[in-house]
Amino acid sequence: MIHFINTGGTFNKRYNRVKGTLEVPLDYEALSEILKNSLFNQKYKITQIISKDSLEFTKNDRKLLQKTIQNIKEDKIIIIHGTDTMKKSAKFISEIKDKKIVFCGAMKPYEINSVEATANLFLAIGFIENSKNGIYIAMNGVVDSYKKIEKDYKNGIFYKKI
Amino acid sequence: MIHFINTGGTFNKRYNRVKGTLEVPLDYEALSEILKNSLFNQKYKITQIISKDSLEFTKNDRKLLQKTIQNIKEDKIIIIHGTDTMKKSAKFISEIKDKKIVFCGAMKPYEINSVEATANLFLAIGFIENSKNGIYIAMNGVVDSYKKIEKDYKNGIFYKKI
Amino acid sequence: MIHFINTGGTFNKRYNRVKGTLEVPLDYEALSEILKNSLFNQKYKITQIISKDSLEFTKNDRKLLQKTIQNIKEDKIIIIHGTDTMKKSAKFISEIKDKKIVFCGAMKPYEINSVEATANLFLAIGFIENSKNGIYIAMNGVVDSYKKIEKDYKNGIFYKKI
Amino acid sequence: MIHFINTGGTFNKRYNRVKGTLEVPLDYEALSEILKNSLFNQKYKITQIISKDSLEFTKNDRKLLQKTIQNIKEDKIIIIHGTDTMKKSAKFISEIKDKKIVFCGAMKPYEINSVEATANLFLAIGFIENSKNGIYIAMNGVVDSYKKIEKDYKNGIFYKKI
User: Are C5 and C80 in contact (CB under 8 A)?
Assistant: First the structure.
């Protein structure tokens, strides 16, 4: 069984028609909609925490993430996270050695580009199936130890260091 | 590098506005559109063969599939295939022992449900990253050796035998 | 107030994931979904009849359509109808002189191309606002008396005779 | 022939994957995509000016809009405009008496909700077909003289004053 932790970020952003702005909602509607259309025979759990743009994550937010993971009994964990500090959070929780943890997110909100968000999420789901314990990032078609994945901030794309 | 073989099936079906019917096209437009939106920093190849509903596959079609795989030098191969005889084709090529081969497809055309098709494809892409040599099926959130995956024809869902 | 009569046709077609075919459903889900996203402050009614591909309409079906219209007290009526015999049905009910009746539909199912279906429907809604009594067809950006609109069966497009 | 003037506003907004924000682009890509899928046999022209959120329109912008309209020889004009000051612009150009002018836009970007944007645009297209000269607003299913249409800023919906 996979346990999803949804922390916010671009993946979840939704347009508020009254305010005219994109917001990180307090729910996991985007995640639910993808899984409803694609994960038919699998059981899973979802935990919702933080619900922020990852540029606004504080040290306390990362401590909460760490504690949440430690309290989860499943060993397969996928974390939906903003892209800007995804790697920083991965490093922060790197003391956890007994689980398979994959971070993913999206460069465009699911509401705008459902294909990219779905692709990143299922890259993580497929990868976690037979990975060893460790902390990984799955984005834009590349997936590996968080140490080997970098965000190219200029072009808005994740890549693998060689 | 991943080598995709596109053989047709529901995944690729498109609506013909003049005839008013869904057709399996001779191209890989659906696959291209997904990869364009989601696989930014990966190199890959695409080979197009057969282009049929999998109920219409003949023995010669399966021999062509087998030969195509044997001639490919990459060891990571993802096959887009109709769902009705996906398992039959997997068994047919099971003499091939030196590659990682993952079959996937969709229960609804990409043109109608982009999330399901994308999810199945990226389940395969994530899985192949660290799988052993073998022949696998990735559908509806489950992925394993083709021997362990079955299609529930009544409900239109793939599941894992326990 | 606009009264919609939904009779079936391509506009409504949905993919059945088990059978693998497109079906004309017995409901008006496509219509509801468009109106929910776009008609916020208007009251309207929906009547569902026939629910067929318009090539399969019988004389009795057209009599039912005629009777349904005659029993409706609103004078603004929009009919969702298959494209192949839309004009034939318009002619069949042409004895009705005291209402504004606009036929529309789609060359691609709403499920596949939401823009075309929405465009045809709202072409009708905008047109009916200040049209005179009469029977009209609104398709592919052209709208006029049903006598002046023709389907180009070869290219799958409606046009206005000059 | 209809002449579209695209001035910007929510209708056109697109997500910038690098900056992570919604921007009003300098082009009319959203409009083109809708018309490509729905206006098959009609000739039309598009003029692009201003390209701003309508809250940022200056007096000079409105003078430019006025002059642009006066220089257009077609008498059917549809203006894509931000919703916040759509009515203000309509009033500003109300000295123009010899044309049919319909303002429309969207509460959600076309990139996020293609149905709403398409519906508003085609409400305008259908309405202009047999309207008298005048200045109108077409939004959320209601269309009438700009004097009779109001934006409910609290709920983000346009309505007709009674």
Answer: yes
